[in-house]
Amino acid sequence: MNVTTTSSEVPGRIPGAQAPVPGPGADGEAAAPIGSPSGQGEASVEVPRFAPRWLELREAADADARAHDLLDPLRIRLANLPGRHRGLIIHDLGCGTGSMGRWLAPHLDGPQHWVLHDRDPYLLHFATVGAPRAAADGSRVTVTTQRGDIGRLTGDVLTGASLVTASALLDVLTRDEVDVLAAACVGAGCPALLTLSVAGRVELTPADPLDAEIGEAFNAHQRRGELLGPDAITAACEAFAQQGATVRVHPSAWRLGAEHAPLTAEWLRGWVAAAVEQRPDLAAAAEAYLRRRLEQCEAGELRVVVHHSDILALPGPTGRS
Questions:
Q1: What sign for the dihedral angle of Cα 165, 169, 170, 173?
Q2: What one-character-per-residue DSSP string does 198-218 give?
Q3: Mean pLDDT across the stretch 297-321?
Q4: Nearest C-alpha neighbor of 101 from the set 52, 41, 147, 163
Q5: Predicted structure pTM score
Q6: φ and ψ of 310, to 5 deg
Q7: With 50 as the cut, is the pLDDT of residue 205 above it?
């Protein structure tokens, strides 16, 4: 997997770390996807880092956007798992600073053990420190961490898992990597809740003549190399369905208003920068465009809808149906 291109809508990079391309991927939550245990061949890999400040900025918008309608079918599946009384084991891939766990753990009953996967030990530290401590019914929540690469994810890694989660991950993967993920989850009989994959549509109000061109260039940037970008939802649905899973898709848009001005401003900078990297001929017009948009944002006049989708994949209880 290309570890240098992992964030789309504004990565907050730690100064001095390897520079990620500011375009491909969902929104920068998945600093890097993970599958193998810590310490196995990772020491020599230079890891891209994303500032916890960016992930903190987006966390509330992520929580508001995630599809609550998928929680009931997920709860029903989890309630019927063999050995459910012993608690849930949840693997969070590309966990970033752990916002998925902070959102989901309080929505699920019973003891939970979260295995937090990421390539960046810096983010794993923040995820551990900020991990939730209690489930919806007050049961204990514990965490451990692993480092590795999703390209090595197998059903064996997920042995005993109750659920796989990820946030803003699918669109920074290739089709082969999505196939690997689907096969591993279904092979382990493990549901997957994969949230906040960009859909390739953005709405800005008031409208600007350059909106569409910037958006098209951004989407093209997301598809650089073999990354799926906005095609990730379709690819994931196909991959899980081919493995025999039942797949549900629900919209999960960011709806950013005046109260989200800091997040909107950071998103705008990354969105426009990626478009210009894809289309250098846009540079002069994009500079003026970004200035106008930031002024509108500061004045509380700008509204932005960034469309995402969430996926819930439910395999047969013992794997492929």
A1: negative
A2: EEEEEEEES--TTHHHHHHHH
A3: 86
A4: 163
A5: 0.84
A6: -110, 145
A7: yes
Tell me the pairing of strands 303-314 and 192-205.
antiparallel
Residue 1 has pLDDT above 60, yes or no: no
* Residues in the chain, overall count: 321
By the 8 A CB rule, do 116 and 132 touch?
Answer: no
**pLDDT on residue 32:** 34
Q: At what angle do helices 232-242 and 175-187 cross, to 10 degrees?
A: 40
The pLDDT of residue 14 is 26
DSSP summary character for residue 109: -
Q: How confident is the model at residue 168 (pLDDT cuts 50, 70, 90)?
A: very high
Q: How far apart are CA 312 and CA 2, in angstroms?
A: 26
pLDDT value of residue 318: 55
Bridge partner residues of 204 (DSSP): 304
The number of beta carbons lying within 10 Å of the beta carbon of residue 238 is 15
How many CB atoms are closer than 10 A to CB 136?
Answer: 14
Q: Which two tokens stand for residue 107?
A: 């929505």
3-state secondary structure of 175: helix
Q: What is the DSSP string of 118-155?
A: -S-HHHHHHHHHT---B-TTS-BEEEEEE---GGG--T
Q: Which two tokens mark 275?
A: 């478009």
Whole-angstrom Cα distance, residue 234 to residue 32? 21
